[in-house]
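Hey,
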Amino acid sequence: MVSKSKEATRRTSTRATLAFHWSYIILPLILLLLSIILTAYFYHRLPVEIAYHFQPDGSPDRWLSRDTIILWMLSAQLFLTLVAGAITWAITKLSAFFRQTENTRLKPEKILLLMGNMVALPQIILGFAILDIFSYNSSQRHIMPLWLFTLIILGVGGTILGIFFIRAIRQVWGANR
């Protein structure tokens, strides 16, 4: 015998699947494209050997060839973009196995939009590292310390996530009252 609450849930839920949308990973795609453009712009301005690791005072202590450092940096950006795509694609496929109630306040599309684009946070930090390495090797100037930029990005990202989760909690509380 099926309980009344399960029966009510079954009547008000759907088996609709989510479709993959490129907007779910738009920020990682944009950052990958910007990294490629940045690399193309700086490629001929860079020396054959590039300093990529620096002492606390800003002086270089490790070098790699130009092609190797570019390959590593762009591979990392591509990997993070593929991770964002794989996460959102897998969730859209897995959504077929779960019922979604019609009156839910927290829309799965918004969650996917956040999850796919959240990968952009490490990509922003990596993109800044690329820009700083290219800037130092082409003009012997650092833009700003990487640790400071990382703290700024993590603070901004944490604030955005906090706002999103507070809004989500308020929506769920409002739906349960």
